[in-house]
Design goal:
9 strands, Butyryl-Coa Dehydrogenase, subunit A, domain 1, 3 domains, alpha+beta, globular, Butyryl-CoA Dehydrogenase, subunit A, domain 3, three-stranded mixed sheet, 394 residues, Butyryl-CoA Dehydrogenase, subunit A, domain 2
Length: 394
Amino acid sequence: MSPLPAFDAHDPLGIDDLLGDEDRAVRDTVRSWAADRVLPQVADWYERGELPGIRELARELGSLGALGMPLTGYGCAGASAVQYGLACLELEAADSGIRSLVSVQGSLAMYAIHRFGSEEQKQRWLPPMAAGEVIGCFGLTEPDHGSDPGGMRTHARRDGADWVLTGRKMWITNGSVAGVAVVWARTEEGVRGFVVPTDAPGFSAPEIKHKWSLRASVTSELVLDEVRLPADAVLPEARGLRGPLSCLSHARYGIVWGSMGAARSCFETALAYATEREQFGKPLAAFQLTQAKLADMAVELHKGMLLAHHLGRRMDAGRLRPEQISLGKLNNTREAIEICRTARTVLGANGVSLEYPVMRHSTNLESVLTYEGTVEMHQLVLGKALTGVDAFRG
C-alpha cells in the first residue's frame, strides 16, 4: 500500500488530481502571464481607476488563446470548458477587471457572433477578436432595466433595407475601447441582436467614472442616436430573449470559476499573514479563532472549486443546464465575497491597504455578485426550477 500524499494547505482536497496535463499547462500559462503583467501594477491601476494599455493587454491575451477560448474555428482556441474555467480563475485571482475583459470579449460578444451570426459576420469579426486586435462589448443592460431585459427601451426600426437603432445601454464593460458592439434592441419582430461597428455615426460610449468597484476595468454607457446599419448587421439566428440570455449563461459559467480565483487570492494572503504576523508573543495562526476563520475559508473555497469543476465537466459533456449555472454563480459569488471579508479581519488594519489584494478583491466582488444576475435573480431561477412556479413577477 503506497503512503498517503502529504497534506497541501493550498489544495487540501487534492483537486489538482482532477486535472490532466493540458489542463495544468493552460492554468500555469495564464497564471504566469497574470503574475508578470497584472499583479505588479494592478494596485496602482485600481487606485487610479483606470486600465492603461488595455489594447496591448488584449493582444497579449489573444496570443495566449484566452479570447473566445472555448469557441472553435475562426482563430479561437477550441479549449475545453474546464480549461476556460481555469483561465478565468487565474485571471480573477489577479483582478476581477481583467477576467471581466476576457469574459465580455469571449463569452458575450464573440459567443453571440459565433452562436447566432452569419458566416460573413463570423469571418469578419471573430478572427481579429480572437487575436485581441478588436475589442468587443455587449449591450443588454439599460439605465432603467437591469434584471428585467424584457423591459428594454432600445429599439430598432426598419428604414428601407437598413436598420436604425436608438437607445441607451448602461454598465457596459469594454464599451469605450470596443471596435464592435453586440447590441440587443426591441423590434417589431421581437428582441433582435445587432453587430454594431463603434465608428458608426450616432454611436458613442462615454466612460463611467467614480466607481468604487472594478476600478481596473473600462465601464461605459452606450448611446445609440439613430445609428443606421445595413440589413446584414442583424444576427440572423437570434430572435427573442433566448439569444442574449444564452450568452449570459455562458458568461456566468466563467464567473463560477473566476470568483473562486478572487477568493483563493484572499485566502492565501490571510494564511500567509497569519503565520507571519505576531500578536501577544505568538503568530496569529496560533490562536484558535484565527484557525477557525482559516478552516471555514478553506472549506468554502474548495467546495466552490469542486462545484466549478463539476459544472465544467457537465458543460464539456453537453449536459449543463442554465439552472445549474445559476446554482454555481449564486453559491460561488456569495461565498467568495464572504471569504474576502473574513480574510480582511485576519489582516486587521492592513486588510484595507492596497499593499494587500484583499480589499481590492472585496470591492470588485460587490460588482461580480450583482452582474450577470443578482443573488435574488438566481434564487428565483432556482426557485422556479425546484417548485415549477414562476415567481419573477410575483
